[in-house]
Amino acid sequence: MPVQLLKIIKDQSEIPLPRHLQKEHLKHLQEGYDHTNKYIQGIVVLSYPLTKLGDGTDFFKIVLQDLDDLCSRISSINVLIHGKMAQDCAKVIRHGDTFIVAGFKVVESPTAREDGRHGCHLEVSEEAGSTIYYIDTKPRTTTASEATSIAVAPQYVYTPLNCLKDGTIVNLYGVVKFFKPPYVSKGTDYCSVVTLVDPSNVKLTCTLFNGNLDSLPKIYKIGDIVRFHRIKIRQYNGQMQGITGAGFASLTFDGTVGAPVVPRTSSRAYTFTDEEHKTIEELRVWAARNVSTSGPAVKLSSVQPMLFFDLTCQLVGKAKVDGSSFLLKVWDGTKCPYPSWKVPVEAKDLEGEKVLLRQLRHLSVDILVYDNHVQLATSLKIGSFLRIYSIHAKQASADNEAVSHIEFHLHGGTCYGRGIGILPENNLDVKELKAFLESVDLAGSQNMESMTSVELGGTSGDFTVLTDHQDLNNTELRTIMNSTAPQQYRIRAKLRTYKPQKLHQSVKLHCSKCNSLQEVPDGDDFDFILQDSAITAPNPELQNASWYDSVMWTAQDQKQRKIAIHFVRNDELLQQPEHTLLMIEGGTLKEFWKLTKRFKCVIPVKSTEDDLELLDLSAPFLLQGNVKYYGCKQCSAPRPIKNLRFIAAEEHPSWEPTEIAQVLGIELLQYVFIMKFTLVDGTGAINAYLFDYEKFFQIPASEILTNSFLQEKMQMTMNTLCPPGRKLGDLPWLECFIKSYNVRDATKHQVYYQIFDTTVAEDV
DNA sequence: TTAGGTTTAG
Hints:
38 strands; ten-stranded mixed β-sheet; single chain; DNA-binding
């Protein structure tokens, strides 16, 4: 009997094969060699229906996977079985069975280039003297016809991303780390670029083309999970690249742990087994720990100038502006906190429901899309739900405007995934957005808008400040003044006055260790320290250490100032500027500003005889973006600067100021708002201090000094809480949360009040 | 064919 069923055995080393047979590894298999006493063993991973060849002989093809060598391109091989043996095999052989064949013929595989399997295939038949052994892995209840039907649904093998080889066609799973939503390419197709990662921690960027938008993967978010079938792998610029080829198909899944596992696809038929369901769940768990997603979605109410953001919104109007730009009017139910621009278009050119456009005129925003995005934008349907990726919120001011406004651009090109994605109605984010849009009171928001911010919450009604303790009842100020401290209260009061009136003076630096407060040094202090430190030239012996690369040059000024920049390497390599930490010696204030715009972090240093060290702590020890970070002179105990290596050795150092401060022995000073509010409620008056890093104004204290927009926003908030020029009776009511506390010294005892757990809300 | 991630400069 040429096809034998071996008994089911757990330990495969015990397979009772004839003694003369020796196992041959696929990698040693070559055409023209003697394989007489050899056998090939593998798992059946794919089988095709039994067919008849042109001459009437039966033909059965299976694919064997060598489990000992999963990563090799030649780890799977086609086995072509002819004649009676084909019939016998088709009856009994199933996926997952262990298949052993001896007495085979090795022939060059004509399909190896295409299917990525072994360069040879095995030809097996009774005539050739072949013997097949197999281990049945599952209890067998199927009949021959059922076995055939199983064979029609092939079982796929998925290649981990670290095992991809040039010139193969593979199936794979991946977590989306980056993507460009489909856009119109310069050729005939739509294009989408997708970068995947998987638990092998290898990245693969795939370039996908299709003339049909629907055939490209329906990726909506970083962190989505995809399954690609029949993707071509090629080498490009020294890296593996995926590209669409014949038969490419994809499934996309929400990457959220616990979300329903529902594939998004345009394929009419696809396989999806319990095993694959499990794979998705596992990848979700892995991704949750290992792939950074884009963070919480930005709503229009939280846009900031100079921000690139993704917006999930509904299209309410559109208009052609000129050949290279197109207007989209969208809303998300929230209100942009800044005056936003309106792109002038003729009413007749504006497509959309007139009544709704008018109702939404203060809630919708204009997004001008350019160049390659125009064609897709033109085709969008009014009312559809969109996710627009990498919108630029740009601060701008016109000559005739007192305050600057914010503009929304979707610039040309597709860098950073810039583009427009159309979300289906069944998308979870869309469902949530729809429910929210339906809850928006259009009449109410219209009325609100017709008032100025000063009128908001004026005599007609209460202006409310949100507290975290809505369950508490209000306490009269008189009662509070007559009570002992410490206690906590919710109060309803009016803000009679506040100090400082010049709001920028309210920002201080606070040391949480010694509890000291100090003024924020101004730029001149820093400049002076820099000039002073530039007198000492960089020490040439400290250039290029094991953990940083250095460049040094001489400025073309009278002092022949020497400048050195030390680029800290991460994991032995230099990173992109926006992830890189620099140390600079001899730089001017202006040079620092320029470098902070381009690099993640900048640390001013000076040379000593044997090491680099930080400057005097009157200077910032770290600059990041617009923010200068200072250390407490009293509490810091500077440690060697080479401690930065500990962070640099991390795989993806985030260069958090707190972490940098810690390794450098710096006690980080935090920016805080310190204000004194005089609150009255008709029964009494108290002075309550505001001590706030970010929560109260929803503005980080660290950014207020360098951002005029945030300063304006803060001024507007204070004008709302305490409108200038109003009589006491006309001031708005506020609700907030305060606590009383005792301050005692040798001579006196006083009770103080502090506002906390309170956030200003524009409207409630 | 197209694009091949790493923000426009309106």
